[in-house]
Write a structure and sequence with these properties.
Layout (H helix, E strand, L loop, with lengths): L12 E2 L2 H11 L7 E4 L5 H7 L5 E4 L3 H9 L6 E4 L15 E6 L5 H9 L5 E9 H7 L10 H9 E9 L4 E2 L6 E8 L2 H5 L3 H11 L7 H4 L6 H6 L13 H14 L3
Parallel strand pairs: 2-3, 2-5, 3-4, 5-6
Antiparallel strand pairs: 1-8, 6-9, 7-9
Helix pairs in contact: 1-2, 4-6, 6-11, 8-11
Pfam families: RrnaAD
Subcellular location: Cytoplasm
Function: Specifically dimethylates two adjacent adenosines (A1518 and A1519) in the loop of a conserved hairpin near the 3'-end of 16S rRNA in the 30S particle. May play a critical role in biogenesis of 30S subunits.
Length: 259
């Protein structure tokens, strides 16, 4: 019996084989890769991955689909984690690992932020996402798509928008254009120099009212002396500030308040 896509899980199953082939071509998986697939669904991408790797970890919340994966023809090459990906502990995996998946569009941003916590263990990430989200992820300062997501992810990853995937490549078709993004964590030294909690607060408050000047949004967070030392005028708005400048502000705050 055909599996009915479940709206609560944001299920849209990729069916276009040329898209799958192109994604595998971009990834170039190797037999000994420790690879994790988020949301394998009906196994369209899983099938292609298992032709390349010796073993595959998959995270699937839908118990019916998880059971099919556990008992299907590929069961000996799969480790199935039947769990909500937002509750999954990626640190239990063997590092370093690679991540791939057609992410549920309704929780894509929370998944991306959750994976920030294990960027030190990740080789790369290839994700199918709503194109609008990827446009925001890779956006440059002073553009309409540039925002909190852009800054937070660009500080930790080098990212490339690889190619678009139209709705007709899915069953059922989503109402939006999709796309593939590659995310490669920046080197350990760069990531470790970011005071993560402070950085997140500095960015979140800056974009909390993006049309207001930083003088207003940062009033209780960033002293004017810190902003000026980072080369930022408080008459600027958040969308004008590069990720590296936000990082610099957080680093100066950390040095000024070492406790």
């Amino acid at each position: 019996m055909k599996h009915q896509a479940r709206k609560r899980f944001g299920q849209h199953f990729l069916t276009d084989q040329s898209v799958l082939s192109n994604l595998i071509g971009e990834m170039r998986p190797r037999a000994d890769d420790y690879l994790v697939e988020i949301g394998p669904g009906l196994g369209a991408l899983t099938f292609w991955l298992l032709k390349a790797v010796n073993h595959l970890q998959v995270i699937e919340i839908d118990r019916d689909l998880a059971e099919k994966l556990r008992t299907g023809a590929w069961k000996d090459k799969l480790t199935v984690h039947e769990v909500d990906v937002l509750k999954f502990d990626f640190r239990q995996l063997q590092a370093p690992f690679r991540v791939v998946g057609n992410l549920p569009y309704n929780i894509s941003s929370p998944i991306l932020f959750a994976l920030l916590d294990v960027a030190d263990q990740v080789i790369d990430q290839h994700f199918m996402l709503q194109k609008e989200v990827i446009d925001r992820m890779v956006a440059a300062p002073k553009t309409s798509d540039y925002g909190r997501l852009s800054v937070m992810l660009q500080a930790y990853y080098d990212m490339d928008h690889l190619f678009d995937v139209p709705p007709e490549c899915f069953d059922p078709p989503p109402r939006v254009m999709s796309a593939i993004v590659r995310m490669v964590p920046k080197n350990a030294e760069t990531r470790e120099r970011i005071p993560h909690a402070l950085f997140g607060r500095v960015v979140a408050t800056a974009f909390s009212q993006r049309r207001k000047m930083l003088r207003n949004t940062w009033a209780d967070v960033v002293p004017e002396s810190i902003a000026l030392e980072a080369g930022i005028a408080l008459t600027a708005r958040a969308e004008e500030i590069a990720p590296s400048q936000f990082v610099h502000v957080a680093q100066l705050l950390a040095m000024a308040n070492p406790d």
